[in-house]
Amino acid sequence: MAANYRGVSRARSHADFVAKMGVVVEEADETVLWLEMLVDTEIVPKALMEKLLKEANELLAIFAAAHWTARQKRKTRNDQ
After folding, report:
1. Looking at the predicted structure, is the pLDDT value of residue 50 above 70?
2. DSSP tag of 80
3. Averaged over 45-60, what is the pLDDT?
4. Closest to 28 in 3D by CA, of 71, 66, 57
5. pLDDT category, 75, cuts 50, 70, 90?
6. Exposed / middle / buried, residue 35 (Cβ in 10 Å: 0-12, 13-18, 19+)
7. How far is CA 15 from CA 34, 42, 69, in A?
8. Distance of alpha carbon 49 from alpha carbon 47, whole angstroms
9. Chain segment 19-42, per-residue pLDDT in tens
10. What is residue 18's predicted lDDT score, i.e. its pLDDT?
11. Which range marks the domain in which residue 25 is found?
12. CATH of the domain at 54
């Protein structure tokens, strides 16, 4: 997730930014999935994973909001 987010800063265009941010959202969501699976399969106790899961979900929400905003800006640019 972090490596993909770093790549967003190197986007060559707005369309590239939107595409790269989409990958970040996908990776963040996948990270949350794997963390949840560690808890669900009882490999890691829920108490140990709660803060990490909370932070991962917060990052996912931030990235998803940034991606949505970037997509809206692209639509606005295309409508003009």
Report:
1. yes
2. -
3. 97
4. 57
5. confident
6. middle
7. 29, 41, 13
8. 6
9. 999 999 999 999 999 999 999 999
10. 96
11. 2-79
12. 1.20.1440.60
4 residue type, one letter: N
Token representation of residue 48: 């140990």
> Residues 25, 68: contact at Cβ < 8 Å?
no
Domain count, the chain: 1
pLDDT given for residue 80 in this prediction: 59
Amino acid at 44: V
The percent of the chain in helix, strand and coil, each rounded to the nearest 5, is: 85, 0, 15
Side chain identity at residue 32, one-letter code? V
Its sign, for the CA torsion 58, 60, 61, 62, is positive
**Contact, 38 vs 56, CB < 8 A?**
no
